[in-house]
Backbone:
């Protein structure tokens, strides 16, 4: 890659980061406003797809067949676990999906599989260059995924993503999330695929800031 091309890619990434900051600020304003809230809630699947597409676009290394297969497997496994979870209530606890996340298959939004692979990929990318053992990188990446879920759970019922029995998130959910994250991160690391991404951390941080802002608003309102 030439210096000029590298500069252009960096500039493009900075523009993408600014776009996502503005996009989620507008999303926050629209979600907290009662009259526009239904419309903006319907945009949540689009926001996830847009974020995931941007993260994949800014992969710093080339995609190999193995990379595509591993990421596809991650999506399938994540979706399959969710199907089992929502239909048996054994894995995560007793819950049911609402309508916010879009089209469902076996009572489970298809978007859930994409969300699992987005978080698994991002967690791996964020921890890739930490100077620790592979095992610790797997653990750190899984913790990142768990922290993301902890914030998201505070909004899920309010925004009709999914609803827990008695409106209480069971501890089992977080334990299961962490264990599944560990399995997915282990698959990614053992596969040997190369994940280098400089925008993943920033998009995940933007998501978390968005969640925190909404949580604060709904608790104070």
Residues:
């Amino acid at each position: 890659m030439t210096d000029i091309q590298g500069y252009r890619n960096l500039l493009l990434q900075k523009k993408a980061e600014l776009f996502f900051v503005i996009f989620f600020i507008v999303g926050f304003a629209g979600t907290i406003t009662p009259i526009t809230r239904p419309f903006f809630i319907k945009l949540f699947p689009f926001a996830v797809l847009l974020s995931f597409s941007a993260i994949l676009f800014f992969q710093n290394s080339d995609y190999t067949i193995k990379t595509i297969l591993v990421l596809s497997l991650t999506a399938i496994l994540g979706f399959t676990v969710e199907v089992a979870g929502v239909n048996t209530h054994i894995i995560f606890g007793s819950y049911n999906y609402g309508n916010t996340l879009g089209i469902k298959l076996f009572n489970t939004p298809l978007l859930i599989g994409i969300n699992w692979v987005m978080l698994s990929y991002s967690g791996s990318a964020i921890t890739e260059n930490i100077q620790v053992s592979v095992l610790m990188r797997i653990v750190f990446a899984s913790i990142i995924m768990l922290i993301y879920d902890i914030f998201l759970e505070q909004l899920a019922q309010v925004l009709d993503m999914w609803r827990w029995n008695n409106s209480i998130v069971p501890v089992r959910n977080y334990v299961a999330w962490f264990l599944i994250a560990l399995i997915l991160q282990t698959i990614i690391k053992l596969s040997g695929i190369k994940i280098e991404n400089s925008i993943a951390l920033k998009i995940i941080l933007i998501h978390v800031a968005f969640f925190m802002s909404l949580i604060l608003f709904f608790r104070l309102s």
Q: What stands out?
A: The chain has a mean pLDDT of 94.
